[in-house]
């Protein structure tokens, strides 16, 4: 009966104990681990000139060939792979169910301190304790947080790939790699019946001291680590669907290399008018991705922009659009019937009082709060999506050069036009009034509170405070 896998990979990082794990597993008859086969600086081991008859230059030219050679080599072969190794083989490894995945982790603080000691002493492996060089590194909070973010991001990417492909991995902590019983479980996972009788003695642990004895500024380290959000409790949950870039809504000036990327709803006729006032006038629109790429190539040194509004103002615009548009007839029915949004019948909407409108807007914001969390049966429409998610959608094609603010739009656009060499740009026209009421007519603190509940990520991401009337520019 054959093995369940053709080859294996140890997903690890420096100072997680991967050298020791490799040495211990190599006691199994027929198993060969080829070190860091895809390290960007060497092939397999630092002193190697080649691996499986491939040089580093050969691997750089064709990394998939080395992966295939490892898979086809005699016996059962594998390698160690770290977060910054050759990215061109990463997806092929993850998507191959015939590749056994071993994930080796270690307490990130231990890993970070051990790495700093190794970098500064140039001792990456220790085979005799007499060769140890003692050195105490300083703990640097910002450096550690970057270190942690890189490793956590890699682990999350691994986990997501395993989940979406229906695979499993054998997870090991550094301490597990010192336990022969656990490693025998790993051997059985790989398809071996032979047992590992002892942990490899080729290496000794380099820094077994207590953490307080290994760093210069232990008290500062304790204080800094207390501020790390290990459980990611400060994360703003996001249940919105991924959005497309919305290219058909983009508008370009016919006689200037300027492209506007709207965040719907589009109460922005003043921007189309501004774009059409350059040169001989006119705008280009109704793009698809092919025609927009053509416009970009022809425009040369172009600039693209969008603008964000206060979340309460945008909700006000969204609700006004929903009340007027035939596109949202079904939404109006559901809002009245299921979510307590007290609106007059469609034929009487134009006669709403400011008090009626404000109360309905607050109820609408309560609906948006649960809708964007995926707790309703109604679509999460772009008209009331978070501006953050719409900007993410833009990035699927191209991010805007400038994200303007509604309250400083004229100033922001003047800066943008100067960047492309236009010294005197057309004046920005006044925006059209809201079809029902200006926000100042209906504003209450309760509306701001409801908007914060619905658009917590927008408030946090863009730094919005409570709504205030826009000052003249």
Descriptive notes:
With 473 residues, this protein is an alpha/beta fold. The protein folds into two domains: 7-226, Rossmann fold; 254-473, no CATH class. The protein has 18 helices and twelve strands. The strands form three sheets. It has a five-stranded parallel β-sheet, with helices on both faces. Strands 10-8-9-11-12 form a five-stranded mixed β-sheet, covered by helices on one side. Strands 3-4 form a two-stranded antiparallel ribbon. Helix 13 runs parallel beside helix 17 (445-454). It is elongated and about 85 Å long.
Considering the chains and any ligands shown, give keywords for the structure.
single chain; elongated; 2 domains; five-stranded mixed beta sheet; 473 residues; Rossmann fold; alpha/beta; 40% helix
Short structural summary:
By secondary structure, the chain is an alpha/beta fold.
Could you give the topology of this structure?
Layout: E1 7-11, H1 18-25, E2 31-33, E3 50-51, E4 54-55, H2 56-61, H3 63-72, E5 76-81, H4 90-94, E6 99-105, H5 108-121, H6 141-165, E7 170-173, H7 180-189, H8 218-226, E8 251-253, E9 258-260, H9 269-276, E10 283-284, H10 289-299, E11 303-308, H11 311-324, H12 329-338, H13 354-371, H14 387-394, E12 402-405, H15 409-419, H16 439-442, H17 445-454, H18 456-462
Parallel strand pairs: 1-5, 1-6, 2-5, 6-7, 9-11, 11-12
Antiparallel strand pairs: 3-4, 8-9, 8-10
Helix pairs in contact: 13-17
């Amino acid at each position: 009966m054959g093995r369940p896998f053709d080859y294996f990979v140890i997903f690890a990082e420096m100072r997680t104990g991967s050298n020791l794990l490799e040495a211990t597993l190599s006691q199994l008859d027929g198993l060969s681990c080829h070190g860091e086969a895809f390290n960007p600086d060497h092939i397999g081991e630092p002193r190697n000139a080649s691996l499986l008859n491939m040089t580093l230059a050969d691997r750089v030219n064709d990394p998939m060939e080395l992966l295939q050679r490892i898979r086809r080599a005699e016996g059962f072969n594998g390698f160690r792979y770290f977060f910054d190794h050759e990215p061109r083989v990463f997806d092929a490894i993850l998507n191959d169910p015939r590749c056994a995945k071993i994930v080796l982790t270690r307490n990130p603080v231990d890993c970070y301190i051990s790495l700093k000691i190794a970098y500064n002493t140039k001792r990456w492996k220790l085979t005799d304790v007499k060769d140890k060089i003692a050195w105490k590194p300083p703990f640097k909070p910002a450096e550690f947080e970057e270190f942690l973010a890189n490793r956590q991001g890699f682990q999350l990417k691994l986990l997501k790939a395993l989940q979406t492909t229906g695979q499993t991995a054998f997870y090991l902590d550094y301490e597990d790699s010192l336990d022969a019983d656990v490693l025998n479980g790993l051997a059985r996972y790989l398809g071996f019946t032979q047992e590992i009788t002892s942990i490899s003695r080729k290496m000794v642990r380099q820094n077994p001291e207590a953490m307080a004895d290994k760093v210069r500024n232990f008290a500062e380290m304790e204080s800094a680590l207390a501020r790390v959000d290990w459980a990611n409790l400060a994360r703003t949950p996001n249940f919105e669907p991924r959005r497309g870039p919305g290219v058909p809504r983009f508008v370009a000036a016919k006689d200037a290399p300027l492209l506007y990327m709207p965040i719907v709803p589009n109460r922005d006729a003043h921007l189309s008018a501004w774009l059409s006032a350059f040169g001989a006038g006119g705008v280009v629109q109704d793009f698809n991705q092919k025609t927009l790429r053509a416009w970009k190539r022809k425009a040369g040194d172009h600039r693209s922009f969008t603008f964000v509004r206060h979340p309460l103002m945008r909700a006000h615009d969204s609700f006004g659009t929903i009340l007027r548009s035939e596109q949202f007839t079904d939404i109006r029915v559901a809002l009245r019937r299921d979510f307590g949004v007290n609106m007059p019948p469609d034929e009487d909407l134009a006669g709403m009082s400011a008090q009626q409108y404000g109360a309905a807007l607050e109820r609408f914001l309560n609906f948006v709060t649960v809708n964007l969390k995926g707790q309703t049966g109604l679509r999460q429409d772009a008209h009331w999506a978070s501006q953050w998610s719409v900007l993410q959608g833009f990035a699927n094609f191209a991010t805007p050069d400038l994200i303007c603010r509604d309250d400083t739009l004229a100033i922001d656009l003047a800066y943008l036009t100067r960047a492309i060499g236009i010294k005197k740009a057309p004046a920005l026209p006044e925006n059209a009034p809201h079809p029902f009421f200006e926000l100042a007519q209906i504003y209450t603190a309760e509306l701001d509170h409801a908007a914060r509940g619905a658009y917590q990520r927008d408030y946090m991401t863009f730094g919005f405070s409570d709504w205030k009337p826009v000052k003249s520019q």
